[in-house]
Design goal:
This protein is an all-beta fold. It has one domain: Beta Barrel (OB fold (Dihydrolipoamide Acetyltransferase, E2P)), CATH 2.40.50.100. The protein has no helices and eight strands. Strand 4 and strand 5 form a beta hairpin. It is an enzyme of class 6 (ligase). InterPro entries: Biotin_Carboxyl_Carrier/Decarb, Biotin_lipoyl, Single_hybrid_motif. Pfam families: Biotin_lipoyl (PF00364).
Amino acid sequence: MATSPLTILSPVSGTLLRIEVAPGDTVQPGDVLAVIESMKMEIPVEAEQGGVIAGIAASEAAAVQENQALFTLRPA
């Protein structure tokens, strides 16, 4: 298992509607970390692996680009 932090990227360009986690939260694979609105659709940003949220690099209501860093995840 990787021990270095993982950067979670935005899957699409759009507006960051909601951030569902806070630094220090423990997440499991598939947990929704945030929701992005793109082309009038709500796209969930999910954890690909379990770990602890180490940092958040974007704010709610901010415009985000595809592949922009959103979260740093420290593997559990």
